[in-house]
Predict the 3D structure of the following.
Amino acid sequence: MSDSSPAVVDVVIIGAGIAGLWLALRLERAGRTVALIEAHAIGSGQTSASQGIIHGGTKYALTNRLTGASESIRAMPARWKAALAGEGEIDLTGAAVLSPCQHLFSAEALASRVATFFAARVMQNRARTTPRARRPAFLAPPSFRGSVYELDEIVLDLPSVVALLAQRLRGPALLVQRDGLRFDAAHRDAMTVLIEHERGRARIEAGRVVCAAGRGNEALLAGAGLDAGAAQRRPLHMVMARGAIEHPIFAHCLGAGPRPRFTITSHDWSSDSQRVWYIGGEVAESGVKRSCLEQIAFARDEVARVLPWLNLEGLEWEAFLIDRAERAQPGGVRPDEPTILEQGPLIFAWPTKLAFAPLLADLIVERVERAGAACEADLAPLIGWPRPPLAQPPWKEPRPWHTFDR
């Protein structure tokens, strides 16, 4: 491997999360040659930290924002389900679905009951009332007096999705550390990317370079001579509980405000009887200034207050911070849809939510197709380049788990 003879591809994608993987497969299906670059592990960062929920517009309904953006996300579950059935733009047959739906339930507080009624009215056919006989086991106790709705939001086992997408790639996936990548030259219709590691270096000439590296887009913006302030970060303090958990939970607990009080998804840890509860929602939004132990205590108390019949004794807990990277918005608010920033042959991309990966790919494939015919590809200079490993989900990474029994 040397930089004397450049590799030639249609598109270089920097960032092998869900957005980069989905886009790479869409482009390959359209007849384009793609080189995928990743600095850490395939599916790391925001992808591995995601709860795997394919949202269908719940948040817009809860804030009464039934706009074009809500209609865009409303279409996402159907696109993902088509892919899982082998009938969509990407073949996801074989990927694991943890739950075919999410449940939205109210706590007993009056404010929550009012919010639930409001949500039911504005969501129209987006939620179905769940009769007591069909409620999940964790909401079955007679002492539970709240309302329960079923949402069309599948929950995916993201490690299986990422592994499958990576397996489907025809082009190379290249492990390149951030300090081993730079943009060498840009023209109106092409760009050169220089990559290197301890055993060699290479030049890649591409018609388009797509930066879908999450918070890594900030450094890539700066490396391209652009303002890193075009990106923003919004942190979350996620919480995990693991152990002999009896009830799997896939649900949003509705609070008095516009966001779910907490959202819990369940994942396998070590066996059928050893699960992880993965907790986000308002707990994670509001907990960014709490210490790890304070956040654990807060989340545990929230679950115990709302679902007092659950046995939390003997569980191990952990919390960690994760940044959500987005294109900068006035006031730092979350964009409603995926966003891109186009500078000549460079495209910076932010999916905003996991569910939006197909829509983000639409935006970029359209621009690549508009740019002209496929190139005469040459991948030979990239043969033998190290491939990034697959990322582990956060509950399988080495962490200092804590017990928190009373």
In short: The mean pLDDT is 90. The domain at 97-156+233-323+394-403 is CATH 3.30.9 (D-Amino Acid Oxidase; Chain A, domain 2).
